[in-house]
Write a structure and sequence with these properties.
The chain is of the alpha+beta class. It has a domain at 17-62. The protein has 2 helices and 3 strands. It is elongated.
Length: 85
């Protein structure tokens, strides 16, 4: 699954959010995310060393969904992270 428009957290005084930060944020604000069996923590689709301050980019999440039921529910929902939809 790919999530678009996720705030990187990078600014002159802060580093980019790491996978654990993103996972925690998604868990805190998205009940459907807590139902996922995560196989890979969220990862940036671009190299974090290339991020500019205050940028929003995409992340990828690998999870288990044997019958496709979770994917169908996710298709009709919105996940939020760091205030972005």
């Amino acid at each position: 699954m790919t999530l678009l428009h996720v705030y990187t957290g990078k600014d002159p005084n802060s580093p980019t959010f790491n996978p654990e930060d993103i996972h925690e944020e998604l868990t805190l604000h998205n009940p459907i995310y807590t139902q996922l069996t995560i196989h890979q923590l969220p990862t940036w689709l671009h190299n974090p060393s290339s991020f500019k301050d205050n940028q929003v980019l995409s992340i990828s999440i690998a999870f288990e969904d044997h019958d496709g039921s979770i994917a169908r529910r996710l298709a009709g929902s919105t996940l939020t992270a760091f205030g972005n939809l």
